[in-house]
């Protein structure tokens, strides 16, 4: 059962660390994804391997974050927030969780469907087997690639929306929405549980 949120007005330390670690990795994945598709970029093979390694790491951390979220209630949204903004916040977070899980799985399925015999070696240390049940097929790989690209564009749009909303709450609304995830902005106003 999720913990009570009545005296908590920021996310837990675990939630904050997972949020920022995953956020930085996703930004890195987007940058790597853009770079590795450019012919002029040197050492593209290494970039592909890093992209796959970080993607699987995001999958693992996102599963942990989702388990944490299901057992630890987030801080309440400001009472002054209109219902449509609350609904938009919940929808955006739901889409983020879905993409954080689905995108690495789509990437794994895509490389598993590839007819090229290129192994995936996570961080140069651990081999990742092909996803079970995915046939080697150029057509199947193409479908997973298209879904992965659409997901990446959706991720970028959600990031822009998420950051824009957080900045709007901080600078225009002057509420605690951003400070819930960046508590050092104003430490003395925050109560927390670890």
UniProtKB/TrEMBL annotation:
Residues 10-183 form the Cytochrome b561 bacterial/Ni-hydrogenase domain. GO terms for molecular function: electron transfer activity; heme binding; metal ion binding. One of its GO terms (cellular component) is plasma membrane. GO terms for biological process: respiratory electron transport chain. Its main location: membrane. The keyword Cell membrane applies. Keywords: Cell membrane, Electron transport, Heme, Iron, Membrane, Metal-binding, Transmembrane, Transmembrane helix, Transport. Pfam families: Ni_hydr_CYTB. The chain crosses the membrane at residues 12-35, 47-68, 88-111, 150-171. Belongs to the cytochrome b561 family. This is Cytochrome b561 bacterial/Ni-hydrogenase domain-containing protein. It comes from Algimonas arctica.
């Amino acid at each position: 059962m999720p913990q009570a949120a009545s005296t908590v007005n920021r996310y837990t330390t675990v939630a904050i660390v997972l949020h920022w670690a995953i956020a930085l990795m996703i930004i890195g994945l987007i940058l790597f994804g853009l770079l590795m598709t450019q012919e002029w970029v040197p050492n593209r093979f290494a970039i592909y391997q890093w992209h796959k390694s970080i993607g699987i790491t995001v999958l693992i951390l996102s599963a942990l974050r989702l388990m944490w979220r299901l057992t630890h209630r987030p801080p309440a949204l400001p009472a002054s927030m209109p219902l449509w903004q609350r609904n938009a916040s919940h929808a955006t977070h739901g889409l983020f969780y879905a993409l954080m899980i689905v995108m690495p799985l789509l990437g794994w399925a895509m490389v598993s469907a590839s007819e090229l015999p290129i192994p995936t070696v996570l961080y140069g240390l651990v081999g990742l087997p092909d996803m079970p049940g995915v046939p080697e097929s150029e057509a199947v790989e193409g479908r997973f690639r298209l879904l992965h690209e659409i997901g990446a564009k959706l991720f970028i749009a959600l990031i822009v929306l998420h950051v824009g909303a957080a900045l709007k709450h901080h600078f225009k609304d002057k509420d605690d929405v951003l400070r819930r995830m960046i508590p050092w902005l104003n430490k003395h106003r925050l109560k927390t549980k670890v």
